[in-house]
């Protein structure tokens, strides 16, 4: 082989080496881009995992808080119900007391009315000249309203 052939062959080898070096550089660059992309995906995955974990914890906290709030609302409702029942019982007892007082007042009124009617009957009997009769029977509350019986002399 002469020098020209060696040079041509060296130029060919250099050209191929240069092509292979460019190809290797392109592949290295592609590898770096893909590794960067993989790292980016890993970062996103880690962020998504953290977000998911945080969301799950938050959801659990919200459930616990909702249960607590429901328990508080239920307790308040029970307490309010007990107060309503206690107030109703107190009102019932007050009404029962008022009814008893009204019954006593009615009895006293009827007794006073009976006494007044007896007094007026006695006055009417005296005005008619009739002798006072013995006390009428307890069940005779209206006999004084009957027309006088004319006794023949």
Task: Describe the protein.
The protein is mainly alpha-helical and 153 residues long. The chain has one domain (8-126). The chain contains 1 helix and no strands. It is rod-shaped and about 185 Å long. The chain starts with a helix and ends in a 25-residue tail after the last helix.
Structure summary, number of beta strands = 0
Give the averaged pLDDT, no decimals.
89
Shape: rod-shaped
Helix content: over 70%
Task: Report the structural category.
Answer: mainly alpha
The topology string of helices and strands comes to H
Oligomer: single chain
Q: Enumerate how many helices there are, as a single number.
A: 1
Domain module count: 1
Query: What are the segments in which pLDDT stays under 50 over at least 5 consecutive residues?
Result: none
Beta-strand content bin: under 5%
Cα Rg = 59 Å
The rounded distance between the terminal residues' Cα atoms is 192 Å
For the largest beta-sheet, the strand count, sense and barrel status come to: none
